Amino acid sequence: MTSSANRQLIVMRHSKSETGASSDHVRQLTDRGKADAVRAGRWLADTEHVPAHVLVSSATRAQQTFDHVSTGLGDEPEHTVRDELYAADVDDVVELCRTLPHSLHRVLVIGHNPTMVELVQQLQRRPAQEGPAHLPTSGIAVLTIPGEWTSLRLRSAQLDEEYRPAG
Hints:
CATH superfamily: Phosphoglycerate mutase-like
CATH class: Alpha Beta
Distance between the termini: 28 Å
Shape: globular
Mean pLDDT: 93
């Protein structure tokens, strides 16, 4: 559980998706991706990391990941689909998080690599080489942010937990 003075940012890479779609933006999840997303949602519920709100990339695979994570959670949290997450860089995601309402203490961001793994690496207080070198599909990193969302900056967070799908 996070202290009321802190915020928790949960960073997730979308689940495994098909290749060869007509457009990258419309790629669908594979059966494995759907199952991995449900398991990731169960892990979030089992570890008491249920988000109050989810920011989801507008890409089809990210939205489908959210749907299946919600199944694993047993409930669908409030969410916002954000076009800018599709092609966002680390600075874009940090700025987006800085605008989150004060009332939200735990937020999940579902996006794409390399941005998601770079976000985790660059937010950590410890050197990036000690953090995850790779965030696999359906991979999750749970970070504690000291203070308010408005004070979020690089090298300010603590990496608390990581989840990697089996297989």
